[in-house]
Each structure stands twice: as C-alpha cells, then as structure tokens.
Write a structure and sequence with these properties.
- The chain has eleven helices and no strands.
- By secondary structure, it is mainly alpha-helical.
- The protein has a single domain, classed as Urease accessory protein UreF.
C-alpha cells in the first residue's frame, strides 16, 4: 500500500476524526446499567461478540459491497445499501447515530480532495449512513478493500474501548487490554464479512436492540446511544 493511502486510512480510523464516534456506546452503557457488563473481562467479551455477531454480519459486508460500488460508479447499489442500513437500525438511537456520523463524514469529505464532486453529490443525495460515507472515504484513498474494512473495524474498536473505560468504569490499561482482545478478533471478522455474498448481509442482535431502546429512557447517561 502506498504511504499516502495508509495515512488516509489511519486518519479515517482515528477517534480524532470529527464525526462524533466518541459520543456513542452502542448499547454498552445500557448493558453496564443493567449489570450485564461490570468487569473488564465482561466488557471485552461483550465487544468481541458484538464484532462477530453485529459488524461482521452487517456493517462490514455493507462497507465491502459499497467499496466495490463506489469504484464501479454503481449508484443503484449505493442507494440500495444505504437504504438497508437505515432500515435495519433497530432503535431510534442507533438510526440517529448512523445518520449523524454519515452527515459529519460527508462534511469532512467536502473539505478534502480525495472523493470526486460527483461522488460527493451522490452521497449527499442519499441522507447518508455512516457505512456508506466511510466506504466512499476509504475507496477514495486507493487502499485495498480489506485494508479499508480493517480501518473501519479498528476505528469502531477504539471508540468502543473508550466507551467501556468510561461506562464500566475502567482504567486505561484495562482499556488497552480490551482493545487488544478486539484487535485480535478483527482478522476473522474481516474474513467472515468478505465471505458474505451481495445482499446476504444481516442485522439481528435483539438484545442489543432492547438495550438500545432502554437506553433512550435511562435516567443517567454519558453517551448518546
């Protein structure tokens, strides 16, 4: 991979990217509140399960398919995948998260020269979800597909490890061990995601959906989801 492409992917995976990923726990805070997660080990196991049962079956296959569609200028597939993401968010919080992060990444793309004006206009017309916006940003780096998926997964892992630190709560060393556990699981998650045929991605994490809905009325919250 060219150095320029690698640096662009590192930028996209960074928690410092101004898209608000740090403000979401994706149901983890609700799991802590209900006592389902209360230790470092439970947080690590929860997030590794979420990686395999959620991201590897849904969002990562979407990013992979969207990466191909952006390269092929296949606007029909891009629109279809975006609609799928929006329709399968199982709570108001999760839908609001993907919409807000998608819009923020769209604005970031408008201030950079990697994606073309036509691609940005196509994304803007969609009410973009985060996976579709990320796929465009990643595809525009010129990096290989698998590397782009790895950047998406690691960016998610960093944000979720920080969410665990704040919500359980845990120390920074514990957070690094959690991130290490998730990182070790990412290669298998990428293999699974890349093996999903087009249109066969799924979104079925019922307990996560229940916790996310409960989080909407949780009395005390640090996170937006």
């Amino acid at each position: 991979m060219l150095d320029a492409s690698l640096m662009q992917l590192m930028w996209l995976a960074s928690p410092a990217l101004p898209i608000g990923g740090f403000s979401y726990s994706e149901g983890l805070e609700a799991a802590v509140d209900t006592g389902m997660v209360s230790t470092e080990e439970e947080a690590a196991a929860w997030l590794v399960d979420q990686l395999h049962l959620g991201l590897a079956r849904g969002e990562l296959p979407v990013v992979a398919q969207a990466w191909q569609a952006w390269h092929a200028h296949d606007t029909d597939t891009i629109a279809s995948l975006n609609a799928w993401v929006l329709h399968t968010r199982e709570s108001a919080e999760l839908r609001a998260q993907t919409e807000q992060m998608g819009r923020s990444l769209l604005e970031w793309l408008r201030n950079h020269t990697t994606a073309s004006a036509t691609q940005i206009a196509t994304l803007a017309a969609l009410d973009p979800s985060y996976p579709l916006a990320f796929a465009l940003a990643a595809a525009s780096t010129g990096a290989p597909q698998r590397a782009c998926l790895a950047a998406y997964a690691f960016g998610w892992a960093e944000n979720m490890a920080q969410a665990a630190i704040k919500s359980v709560p845990l120390g920074q060393s514990a957070g690094q061990r959690i991130l290490s556990a998730i990182s070790a699981a990412i290669p298998n998650a990428l293999d699974a995601a890349l093996a999903v045929p087009p249109g066969a991605q799924q979104a079925f994490t019922p307990m996560l959906a229940i916790l996310s809905a409960q989080h909407e009325v949780q009395y005390s919250r640090l996170f937006r989801s």
